[in-house]
Amino acid sequence: MADNYLQFSTVVTLKNDEEKEWVLAEILKRSDHDDFEKALDCEATVDQGGRLLWLRSAESANLEPVAELMQDYLKKFHPDRFLKMTWAITCSKLRADEFDGGAFFVTSKRITWSGSWKFFNQMEERFKKAQKKAKASRKGSRQR
User: Fold this and answer.
1) What is the count of structural domains for the chain?
2) What digits encode the pLDDT tens for the residues 88-104?
3) Which residues contact 66 (CB under 8 A, 6 or more apart)?
4) Counting Cβ atoms within 10 Å, is residue 40 exposed (0-12), middle (13-18) or buried (19+)?
5) Do 10 and 63 form a contact (C-beta atoms < 8 A)?
6) Which residues are CB-contacts of 46 (< 8 A; sequence separation ≥ 6)?
7) How do residues 33-83 score in pLDDT, each as one tens digit?
8) Domain range spanning residue 42?
9) 137 in a domain, yes or no?
């Protein structure tokens, strides 16, 4: 039997105590847990004198609440900035196609998601279009 994991680690720099207090309150408000570190379905701690919010997961997590928290933080404190995060999906055994990954890019207005399979599908579609165009071009040149 193999185990699958969703792993990520990212840091958001908090500029002042107001931001720190807001983040701490928001994480608990969005949670069914009383435990701050498990509130977002991932581990969350504030380090470096309350200036670094460290979000991470070694096994599994729901990424949407993390992205939404980041977006709400930007809306409230930094509407002209962005945040970004990557993640890996791994497997304890080397099974074919069991590995994946992705990223999101967050602004105060939008969260944009991308993953490796999305990239592969886009590349496959481009490749097939190019092949079809090349085939049509060869066919057209033969008919002349």
Assistant:
1) 1
2) 999 999 988 888 999 99
3) 40, 42, 55, 85
4) buried
5) no
6) 14, 20, 23, 24, 52, 53, 54
7) 555 555 566 788 888 788 999 999 888 888 888 999 999 999 999 999 999
8) 4-115
9) no
